[in-house]
Amino acid sequence: MEERTTLKDVAREAGVHVSTASRALNPLTSSVVNPETVERVTAVARRLGYRPHPLARGLRTNQTMSVGVVIPDVENPLFGPIIAGAESVLVEDGYSVLIGNAERGGIDAEDVVNDLLEHRVDGLLLATAGRSDRWIADLGRQGVATVLVNREADDSSVPAILCDDHAGIGLAVQHLANLGHRRIGHVAGPATLSTGLFRRQAFMSWMRILELAPDENQIEEAEWFQVEPGYKAGLTLLTRCPDLTAVVAANDLLALGVYRAIRELGREVAVDISVTGYNDIPLLDMMQPPMTTVRVPYRQMGTQGAATLLDLMARRGDGSTASIKLTPTLVVRSSTAPPS
Amino acid sequence: MEERTTLKDVAREAGVHVSTASRALNPLTSSVVNPETVERVTAVARRLGYRPHPLARGLRTNQTMSVGVVIPDVENPLFGPIIAGAESVLVEDGYSVLIGNAERGGIDAEDVVNDLLEHRVDGLLLATAGRSDRWIADLGRQGVATVLVNREADDSSVPAILCDDHAGIGLAVQHLANLGHRRIGHVAGPATLSTGLFRRQAFMSWMRILELAPDENQIEEAEWFQVEPGYKAGLTLLTRCPDLTAVVAANDLLALGVYRAIRELGREVAVDISVTGYNDIPLLDMMQPPMTTVRVPYRQMGTQGAATLLDLMARRGDGSTASIKLTPTLVVRSSTAPPS
DNA sequence: GCGCCATTCGCAAACGATTGTATTCTCCCG
DNA sequence: CGGGAGAATACAATCGTTTGCGAATGGCGC
Description:
By secondary structure, the first copy, chain A, is α/β, with parallel strands linked by helices. Chain A is built from twelve helices and twelve strands. Chain A has helices spanning 7-14, 18-25, 35-48, 54-61, 79-92, 109-118, 134-141, 165-179, 194-209, 227-240, 252-264, 298-314; strands at residues 66-71, 96-101, 123-126, 145-149, 160-163, 184-188, 219-221, 246-249, 274-276, 293-295, 324-326, 329-331. In chain A, helix 11 (252-264) links the parallel strand 8 (246-249) and strand 9 (274-276). In chain A, helix 1 crosses helix 2, helix 5 (79-92) packs parallel to helix 12 and helix 8 crosses helix 9 (194-209). The relative contact order of chain A is 0.12. Chains A and B meet through helix 4, helix 5, strand 2 and helix 6 of A and helix 4, helix 5, strand 2 and helix 6 of B.
């Protein structure tokens, strides 16, 4: 069908050599060619609707103008905003987004990354969940521009964009404390995930700060960040410590599980036991009762991550690998109330 | 900084010319080279960890082994499963997924597609919402392998994977009719979207089939597939037709809006007015009351779409552009009950 | 008038694969 | 023993750019 117009066409039409045309069109090298010829070439290029062939260019310059975004689970609504945010800023700079789904467990996130690398992406945005993966540090050393989103590496040579979980959990605990709660429990996420571990530590820390008699006994760890595990953990927690008046969940879905556990025990959310979530996923305001939670700026994580990545790719090698901590906010709804 | 091993390296190491090495490694051309040499070359390739350079290959063969997936709104949880499903089957065939987000309105879905085409994707999976976009037909004629997902083109030259909305709405209406409802209303989606229009038509059709006195008056169109518009539409519908005992919403979010409208009017969901949703988005079972809805197999849409696309790309040009209709299922929860 | 520097541009070699064609070699048959 | 068929391989062009380098050109000072 339509014949692609190549640089050679433009050159011929403009009466110059292809190399001159190339230089003329490239803003970085156009200084070396007669301004008047630049003008002419650019005009011809526009008239012919010339677009450089990305593969040819990539082959020569060794970059594809595409970055890989690796997500542990595309179906998790959490990652939509991250992807969208990242995409929106990357597109501005002409990059496109290769998506890598590491859904099938955690081990082969590495495989997914390798696939992406196989496709010669220029950079990587990792939102995979696992803590401390050895290969991530290798990645950085290997010269692949990499940014972590919503997770941290044990090795801090790789910049990370994350949410200040300590502050976030603090918002929840303080809110409950202000309402008058003193016996507060925590349904934690799996300790194998950085988010699970950090929030748990933050919880203990704040209980100490607020002098609320922190007790590991008042913490129950869920097997996974989902409703069902939250329900199970909530149930064991509330039966083990029947005198709790509030529960801080490490995640909205866990909190929904706690809702169920509370009802199962014949109590009522907010009235008998207050509950807070974490993340502020969509539709939380439609729950019964609408859930008080900590909002994490996921979209901003995406944009910040992308921006940092662009930075990193621009000046290869050097670069202050500055990690960024975004600040969460408290969204008060109706799942929290003063203890009865 | 590891040096990439190129085909030349393999050839040298195996003591053959690079072209021979190329043919030996390619299953389609390996028949023309001595089986014994094939063996040797393959061995060397494996030992050296050779991977063909996708850009070099693409430049020559004119394909990138990547397909673009265009989504109207990445943040909509609906599209997670579609993407995940598509990705899972495309990865099997060595393709990777470029994601295009057409979030910013509807007009520039075309721009997004052009961006993707600029990146020389081999195929396109379109899940954008608009009806009848002229450029889609052009796309097909232009030789770009294209498959529509969850939407239809007015021009049917492009294969589409969609859900049988007529059957789906039928499930909802029949379910309500079986419960004894006779005065059933419909909160429709915007008629500018194919899903909005088709479900509305399906609703009328089934009301006729079941002889339930179909009346355009019992339909109110929401401005957008979201909770708030659903609330507004629900409110006007229920005040205009106060004797309705059930409402079929064109979408789960609209149905949630109707929940609110019903409460606003001092009535109770299920008890006074039954409500059905459409799509079965996550967490619907956590609502109060858990919502009866029609489940659409979105993940399967993704996989089917990808499969069809692979087909299309395999045999360029020919090809029965068979559209596929997937069948929805009814998920009965507690938002529907016999009329009081 | 000559040489030198700066500017502007063309030449050609990459990048790493695929693929049409030419070459070599072997073997067999007349 | 020569020639031709056929298999196996080598050669080289090509995809569309970028880019180091050398070659023109022109202006200027001595």
